[in-house]
């Protein structure tokens, strides 16, 4: 079964509505958000089954020893004083919740929170060859992107797994995670750069004693994405409980879901793919919509085994045997058989017909989920100097290997073949002669190539932390301190296999008959190893021909990133006032970030850093400046920066009264100096008021936050391309200067970038276990974020136009269209602080738990729900001639109007059962579209007309359970997407999977079973 029953019958559409209503009712009925997990129930202790615990809001867990001399604190503040309540909303996910969700990667469990929108993972980026982010699991809060969410491990930074600076959660130790704090507001004053959207902080169990293991397997209902997870951890204490040692190791294998091939056949028998596409009629003023949303779009410029696309023979296609036949155009298209190669009845803008022969379409050939192998080793040694002070060291060595297929073959259109080419069938040669032509244009999906492009990223992380933490008396009061040094190193290697060298392919397809042998026509290519190939039909090229056009040593990139961070912080209560103790936290930090990346000479270009070698020999057919591969042209680069900063945070209680309740003011400030951009200041001001109304607390905080430019933006590896017909808009150009010219476009970093500046405000109300309903907690929070100076990239023409026509002088130094003689004109394509982002909305969270003893049943029921509404998400490019775009409710993006996560669980001493609902609301493709069918206004670039702008939401139902076989052995199961709900199309082009893989489940029903052992 592929289409869900919801989508087939009106009756079941009503059923879906009932289910959604029930899910929302469970959220609304238990009201609006939760306090801390640790306060509502103790963490589940094996061998009891994992229980569904409520997700908290802002209240910190009850103070208890996390390590010697330290209290557990919520990540929203650096103050460690027991009883302190931070004003910043924070959700904590405990070990029991992680276990209940039974995901092979804890990343997936956290990413399901509604406030996390646009996170990357193994199902995203699979259509990419060159990004280097395939299989990279990183969080994005508020849809602001992974680069604006700070992820920490035990409140310490982690070296980036990509030059954007984001870490890979797959490289974190997962079995020893005690809880995960998610701060849903700006936290730069507390933690520094990148905490614009918030902070995700993984807290490990530093006092684990015993042995535990987890074995898990999984498979989809389609028989793919087979999974195997093996985890084990051991902890021991020595020397009278003064030396504490924890070691964990894990291996996770996920087969992934392979790509389809050509046409519309998905992997495993899935049938939801239908080449949905925006058809551009390219008519803007006839009263009909310019864009049409249609399924089964046909690319008519190529077929799987070749198609003649212009001239008298246009429409002649070839089958696998190389035999010609008449191509079936969609839309009842009729080829013009002219040099232009137009097809009447089809849509020239984009080159699509509807229906017809779809066997050459390649969009289906993208991996649905990357294959992944994850290896992780972690160890911690802590020694108690005394009862209140500890020195410690941790080591985390991990590796993640992934693989994805971005597309099959290597589609080529607009090729020119000579009629005399000996690979052209005799009947076509005769037809050429009759028509009086000597050549024709040709397009092919290269279906004759035996293997598809595959990308193999490998990330290795080496992370070492040493430090001391504890508490000491100072002038009669106790002060907590934490001092640490961290060195992290990430090595990323990317290999691409089965990919074309474009110039060699172009030489190999041009064949002649020389001395009775078919050889390459170009004598220079022939002298340097060229072996001809036949791209007409499906005959597999010879091994020698494949070795020539697809050498075994394909594109390669090696990246080394390092991070060195020193941190010192302390906190305490130096005095008490009428309302309670004044708490203070302060500290200093220093961090250095470095990266160095090299690429192969065919992609990067030949240089002292990337010279020719035996693996990549010199070849006059290739361009010494690089960019020779079909894709994956990696370039060399390096850069570094350092940061020095200090912070101060104060919590001032100013009200404590039986009549008025209690209130506190929380303020913090941080001064940060970047070696690249100078000094920047961040701050926050907030407070909480525990009102005299039982269980009711008000909270609010506003902050100034920053995101500093990352290594990629500052020191991007340069990429040079040639741009013809470039317009010179200089109104004062000399009489001899041309109006159009050919330029070199250099994509480079910009070391003059400044940090993005954000203003982040949240305000809300919390109801925490009132006496009249002790198992109930709820909260409602409004958030508002405005980011100025957002780092964005212009195209080369925009840069020049803005300088000359809009007098933005900061861009004028990025190009020179009239260089000295002998030097080519150029434009440096760089990122600038031009754009802005505004988003606001609200979070609703709730939990309710109650015992079943009154009805004669064992255990307790736990209900919980979280919802996020995005009211606005407005991006202003900051470029004259553009308009701000509203992305709230755009289901083709990351910010649907509503997202919901709800769970209902029944937990007993023997077993647990849980039901989980994941839902997001219906939306649109783009808020700028004007929907109409007749009488349409004139379609414009900013507000184009379209016949359909509706993109449905989705509802996913998950179930799970566990059973204690013995006191030490627990078995469990989990079924995700029980109803096998198919994704909705997100039509863009027909060259990729036409759905939003970051939002929709593209895998289908997934089964997992496992066993946990704890001793």
From TrEMBL:
Main localization, broad class: membrane
Protein name: TonB-dependent receptor
Signal peptide from the UniProt entry: 1-38
Compartment(s) of residence: Cell outer membrane
Record keywords, A-Z: Cell outer membrane, Membrane, Receptor, Signal, TonB box, Transmembrane, Transmembrane beta strand, Transport
GO CC annotation terms, alphabetical: cell outer membrane
The organism of origin for this protein: Sphingomonas glacialis
Pro residues composition-biased segments: 44-63
InterPro entries membership: Beta-barrel_TonB (IPR000531), Beta-barrel_TonB_sf (IPR036942), Plug_dom (IPR012910), Plug_dom_sf (IPR037066), TonB-dep_rcpt-like (IPR039426), TonB_rcpt_CS (IPR010917)
Domain TonB-dependent receptor plug, residue spans: 86-199
Membrane topology: Multi-pass membrane protein
Pfam families: Plug, TonB_dep_Rec_b-barrel
Similarity comment: Belongs to the TonB-dependent receptor family.
Start and end residues of each TonB-dependent receptor-like beta-barrel domain: 443-978
Motif interval(s): TonB C-terminal box: 998-1015
Region entry Disordered, spans: 40-66
């Amino acid at each position: 079964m592929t289409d869900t029953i919801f989508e087939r019958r009106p009756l079941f559409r009503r059923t879906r509505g009932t289910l959604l209503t029930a899910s929302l009712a469970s959220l609304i009925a238990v009201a609006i958000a939760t306090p801390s997990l640790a306060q509502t129930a103790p963490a589940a202790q094996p061998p009891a089954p994992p229980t569904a615990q409520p997700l908290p809001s802002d209240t910190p867990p009850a103070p208890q020893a996390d390590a010697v001399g330290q209290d557990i604190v919520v990540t929203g503040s650096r103050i460690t004083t027991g009883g302190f309540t931070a004003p910043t909303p924070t959700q904590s996910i405990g070990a029991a919740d992680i276990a209940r969700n039974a995901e092979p990667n804890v990343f997936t469990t956290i990413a399901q929170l509604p406030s996390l929108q646009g996170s990357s993972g193994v199902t995203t980026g699979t259509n990419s060859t060159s990004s280097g982010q395939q299989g990279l699991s990183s969080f994005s809060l508020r849809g602001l992107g992974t680069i604006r969410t700070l992820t920490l491990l035990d409140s310490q930074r982690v070296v980036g797994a990509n030059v954007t600076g984001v870490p890979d959660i797959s490289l974190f130790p997962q079995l020893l995670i005690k809880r995960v704090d998610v701060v849903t507001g700006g936290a730069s004053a507390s933690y520094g750069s990148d905490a614009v959207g918030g902070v995700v902080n993984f807290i490990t169990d530093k006092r684990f004693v015993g042995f535990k293991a987890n074995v898990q397997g999984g498979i989809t209902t389609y028989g793919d994405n087979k999974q195997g997870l093996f985890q084990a951890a051991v902890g021991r204490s020595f020397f009278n409980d003064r030396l504490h040692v924890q070691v964990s190791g894990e291996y996770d294998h996920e087969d992934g879901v392979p790509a389809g091939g050509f046409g519309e056949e998905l992997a495993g028998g899935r049938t939801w793919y239908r080449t949905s596409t925006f058809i551009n009629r390219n008519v803007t003023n006839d009263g009909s919509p310019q864009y049409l949303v249609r399924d089964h779009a046909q690319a008519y410029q190529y077929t799987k085994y070749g198609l003649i696309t212009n001239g008298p023979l246009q429409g002649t296609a070839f089958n696998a045997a190389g035999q010609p036949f008449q191509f079936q155009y969609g839309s009842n298209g009729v080829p013009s058989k002219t040099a232009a190669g137009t097809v009447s009845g089809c849509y020239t803008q984009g080159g699509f017909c509807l229906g017809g022969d779809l066997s050459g379409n390649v969009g289906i050939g993208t991996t649905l989920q990357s294959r992944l192998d994850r290896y992780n080793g972690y160890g911690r040694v802590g020694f108690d100097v005394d009862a209140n002070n500890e020195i410690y060291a941790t080591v985390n060595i991990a590796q993640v290997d992934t693989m994805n297929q971005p597309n099959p073959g290597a589609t080529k259109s607009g090729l020119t073949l000579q009629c005399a080419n000996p690979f052209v069938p005799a009947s076509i040669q005769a037809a050429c002669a009759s028509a009086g032509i000597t050549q024709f244009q040709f397009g092919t999906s290269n279906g004759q190539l035996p293997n598809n492009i595959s990308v193999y990223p490998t990330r290795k992380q080496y992370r070492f932390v040493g430090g001391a933490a504890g508490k000491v008396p100072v002038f009669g009061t106790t002060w907590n301190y934490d001092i640490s040094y961290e060195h992290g190193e990430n090595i990323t290697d990317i290999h691409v296999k089965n990919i074309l060298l474009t110039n060699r392919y172009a030489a190999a397809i041009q064949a002649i008959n020389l001395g009775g042998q078919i050889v390459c026509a170009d004598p220079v290519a022939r002298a340097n190893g060229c072996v001809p190939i036949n791209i007409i039909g499906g005959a597999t090229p010879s091994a020698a021909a494949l070795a020539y056009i697809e050498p075994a040593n394909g594109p390669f990139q090696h990246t080394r990133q390092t991070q060195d961070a020193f941190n010192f912080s302390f906190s305490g209560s130096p005095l008490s006032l009428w309302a309670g103790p004044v708490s203070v936290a302060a500290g200093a930090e220093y961090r250095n970030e470095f990266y160095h990346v090299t690429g192969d000479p065919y992609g990067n270009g030949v240089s002292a850093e990337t010279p020719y070698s035996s693996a990549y020999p010199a070849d006059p057919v290739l361009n010494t400046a690089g960019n020779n591969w079909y894709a994956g042209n990696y370039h060399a680069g390096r850069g570094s920066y350092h940061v020095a900063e200090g912070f101060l945070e104060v919590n001032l209680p100013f009200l404590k009264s039986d009549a008025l309740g209690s209130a506190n003011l929380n303020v913090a400030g941080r001064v940060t100096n970047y070696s690249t951009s100078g000094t920047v200041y961040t701050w926050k001001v907030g407070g909480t008021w525990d009102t005299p109304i039982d269980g009711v607390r008000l909270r609010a905080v506003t902050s100034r936050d920053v995101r500093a430019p990352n290594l990629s933006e500052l020191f991007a590896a340069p990429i040079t391309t040639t741009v013809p017909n470039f317009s010179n808009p200089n109104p004062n150009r000399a009489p001899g200067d041309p109006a159009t010219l050919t330029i070199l476009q250099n994509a480079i970093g910009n070391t003059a970038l400044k940090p993005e500046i954000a203003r982040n405000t949240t305000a809300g109300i919390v109801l925490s276990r009132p006496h009249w309903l002790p198992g109930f907690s709820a909260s409602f929070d409004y958030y508002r974020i405005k980011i100025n100076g957002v780092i964005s990239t212009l195209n080369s023409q925009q840069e020049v136009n803005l300088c000359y026509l809009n007098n933005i002088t900061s861009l004028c130094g990025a190009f020179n269209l009239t260089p000295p003689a002998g030097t080519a004109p150029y434009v440096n394509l760089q990122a600038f602080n031009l754009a802005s982002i505004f988003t606001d909305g609200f979070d609703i969270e709730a939990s309710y738990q109650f015992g079943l003893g009154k009805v004669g049943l064992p255990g307790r029921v736990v209900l919980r729900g979280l919802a996020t509404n995005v009211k606005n998400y407005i991006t202003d490019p900051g470029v004259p001639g553009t308009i701000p775009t509203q992305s709230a409710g755009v289901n083709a993006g990351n910010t649907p109007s509503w997202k919901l996560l709800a769970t209902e669980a029944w937990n007993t001493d023997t077993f647990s059962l849980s039901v989980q609902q994941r839902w997001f609301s219906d939306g649109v493709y783009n808020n700028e579209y004007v929907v109409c069918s007749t009488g349409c206004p004139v379609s414009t670039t900013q507000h184009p007309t379209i016949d359909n702008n509706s993109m449905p939401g989705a509802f996913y139902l998950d179930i799970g359970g566990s059973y204690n076989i013995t006191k030490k052995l627990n078995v469990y199961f989990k079924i995700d997407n029980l109803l096998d709900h198919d994704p909705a199309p997100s039509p863009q082009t027909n060259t990729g999977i036409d759905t939003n893989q970051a939002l929709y489940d593209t895998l289908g029903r997934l089964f997992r079973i496992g066993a946990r052992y704890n001793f």
